[in-house]
Amino acid sequence: MHSEKTYRPMSGWPVLAGVLGTLFGGSALFVYGINVGNPFPIIGGIATTVAAVISLFGFMAIAPNQSRVLLLFGSYKGSVKESGFYWVIPFYSKKKLSLRVRNFETGSTTTPEKKNEAGQVVTPSSRSGGRPSKVNDSDGNPVDISAVVVWRVVDTAEVLFEVDDYENFMEVQSEAALRVLASRHPYDSDDSTISLRGNPVEVCEQLKKDIQERLDKAGIEVIEARLSHLAYAPEIAAAMLQRQQAQAVVAARTKIVEGAVGMVDMALQHLEKDGIVELDEDRKATMVSNLLVVLCSGGHTQPVVNTGTLHN
Description:
By secondary structure, the protein is of the alpha+beta class. Helix content is 45%, strand content 23%.
């Protein structure tokens, strides 16, 4: 396994001055040899000029958040991550890698660039928008889910030498981690278990951890992973909506009944405490029944006024 090594190249400005001076000196020596008719200055001028021209291939300018991986005849020599103008041995092969933060949405596809016979780019590479992936959750319900992964390169040696295409590797592994995560949790549940909809923070942290474990060997750091789309699949969305509505109605009715029972209990206690009226068990049952009907009814109730006695 290849580990990243830091390479500290020479500053390019002094070398550039020396190369320019060598070019002018070689040209002057060549002209002098021609004028005096001496072959040695001519050969020296040609050799000096060729050496200066070859030295020009050793310059490299590195922008911020860019890097160069240096290879000498297939042997890894190190990586340069600091921005600046440098000079290295001209025979070094300089592989360019970006260290900038990038994002990827699962389900998107990349179209490679197309070139003509002359090598010119006819159609640049493009990326389509992400499409949700259909996955079965832990309850077996089909779910449409997608995520956005924010990542960057941290180990240039592993990125180049451990995987064939690190961008495609990252995309495939992120998609696989998302599918595994969705199959481990239900779409929705009570508070006792973690669900995809009810616990987005915990789910995103687990997704980030799962993706990072898969990308450690590729020299990539996952900065953030967030769900960008989560819904039931269209074929069961209507049925699940009805179930959610029924659960909401039951929960609302439960709260109403709890509140109504409390209000009835409070009314009976006040009547008994203040001595307003004494009720036997039958009248208490009738009063409780009437109050519960009024408090738990889904619509407006119509009161009936008793103009007779308490028992008629």
